[in-house]
Design goal:
- A three-stranded antiparallel sheet has the order 1-2-3.
- By secondary structure, it is mainly alpha-helical.
- The protein contains 14 helices and three strands.
């Protein structure tokens, strides 16, 4: 993380708190503060101390209202897991506790955790609705439409999470065969086979990618603000999916599309000669409550499931 800018006494407080932590805990705190500062408060890079100031300077009512809104943003808008949300709330509480011990504030955060749900609400569009979404967005020839089509195909065909789409870089593409993605909870990216239809969607977006012609490095998916083509955010992907799906007459969210991909994989498992263990490999779940328990599943199943999902929608661009 960028060096924290000192805004006394808030910058000093943050520096002291981070200095007292072990390496792993410090890294987790920094990640949580970065999310609070940049994803929620929209502060510039390296302004985590400014986020602490905004949290502490307004008093009890203002701070608790801010944290409640932050919790709602993570839960409702970004659909983060309950464990992630509650950990980030805990980080903010501990910062306020440290400020209290230093007599900077005389109050505490009074916002409770959200209920720890072992299984996400995974309702997603059915097959007919997914076809409507895919064919609707495929007709949009604008850069925005091409970007949206590639994002939706990656989620619908490969069952990717938003985070995997966001973190894809241009050097993670080995077209036409495969892409490399970062799976949830893992630092190292892993390769996934790519169906031809998904590859076509990616190539169509790359043809109008704002920065790809200048450099072969950087994010695959960027915003379309002229002169500021930064990596796309989770909130932006949420808006892309909801906007295009709503225009198709069947509003859904990113996790809904992932759910449909996994549902299709379960339906296709018997036809493809695979088991639910292989579905877990395809969906990258670590919890048996989502798709039973992990066992030694065939790695080739991921390619089968992705191809079967992609074939469900065909390739509107080839018509």
């Amino acid at each position: 993380m960028a060096e924290v800018q000192t805004i006394d006494p808030y910058g000093t407080l943050l520096s002291d708190v981070l200095a007292d932590l072990g390496a792993a805990t410090r890294q987790a705190y920094e990640k949580d503060l970065k999310d609070f500062s940049r994803e929620y408060l929209k502060l510039p890079k390296g302004q985590e101390a400014g986020a602490v100031r905004q949290l502490l300077a307004g008093g009890f009512e203002t701070a608790n209202a801010l944290v409640r809104d932050y919790r709602a943003d993570m839960d409702t808008r970004r659909e983060l897991s309950s464990s992630t949300i509650n950990r980030r709330l805990s980080t903010l509480r501990k910062l306020v506790q440290a400020a209290h011990r230093r007599s900077i504030v005389s109050w505490s955060i009074d916002v409770p955790n959200i209920k720890d749900e072992p299984v996400h609400n995974a309702d997603g569009p059915d097959l007919d609705d997914m076809r409507r979404i895919v064919f609707h967005v495929a007709k949009d020839e604008s850069a925005k439409g091409r970007r949206g089509y590639a994002i939706i195909r990656l989620m619908a065909d490969l069952g990717l999470r938003r985070g995997a789409v966001i973190n894809m870089d241009l050097n993670d593409l080995d077209l036409p065969k495969r892409i490399r993605v970062r799976l949830k909870g893992r630092e190292k990216k892993r390769w996934k086979d790519l169906p031809p239809e998904t590859c076509a969607a990616l190539r169509r977006w790359l043809a109008v990618h704002p920065t790809r012609s200048k450099s072969r490095v950087g994010p695959v998916f960027v915003n379309l603000v002229p002169g500021w083509n930064a990596r796309i955010s989770g909130s932006a992907i949420y808006e892309i999916v909801t906007e295009f799906s709503e225009a198709a007459g069947c509003r859904t969210r990113p996790h809904g599309i992932r759910h449909s991909a996994i549902t299709n994989a379960i339906v296709n498992a018997a036809t493809l000669g695979e088991t639910l263990d292989s579905v877990m490999q395809f969906s990258d779940h670590a919890d048996f409550r989502m798709v039973l328990r992990y066992r030694n599943a065939s790695k080739k199943a991921q390619k089968k499931f992705a191809n079967a999902n992609a074939a469900t929608f065909g390739d509107p661009l080839a018509r």
